[in-house]
Write the structure tokens for this entry.
Amino acid sequence: MEPESTAMVPSLLDMVFPRVSLGGAEGALVSDAEVLQLQQQCHSGGFPVQVDGLECVIAAASYDDAPLVRKAVHTLKYKRIPAVYHALALAMDHALPVASTDATVLCPVPLHWTRRFWRGFNQAELLAEALGHYRHMPVCSVLKRRRPTGRQARRGRKDRLVAMQDAFAARTGFAVPKTVILIDDVVTTGATLSACAAALRAAGAQSVSAWVVARA
């Protein structure tokens, strides 16, 4: 196919399947106005969330007060549109505090390989990579999920804690950093983050915190 013809393919696809933004406008998956709105729905300094086993957990937004943030997270995860992650990472960068040490490493919460295969990506990984770029911070996926744990959204707190028990471990061949900030999209009960922190500490991490897009 000639270069001219190749260049026409996205345009033809846009005509047949027009891209629609979070708010329903055509032309971009996330409009410039929506990027600004996402930032405005995030709280400067974030919202602290108490989670066992972590020094601190900071959510950039609260679902109760951030309908567009909630829609963006839902679009990213369940409609499987990874392009939304850049706007969410920008909103996180706008709201979250500065890391306390230059030695801090960002670590995305891992998906089991079966869930990653089904979804096509790990949203926490995408957020961590983008946020690491904006913050000039290293990203290292030092954790693995040992087994499928199902959807936490359908469980109560007790069932979530049971499902997450020993669900994570440090990956072999990786030196676990002393100071780690976990990255995820949403914190609800904190069971997933707590289990991740336990695995990191067992592997040698001394300080574990977390940054997430929103608290639910």
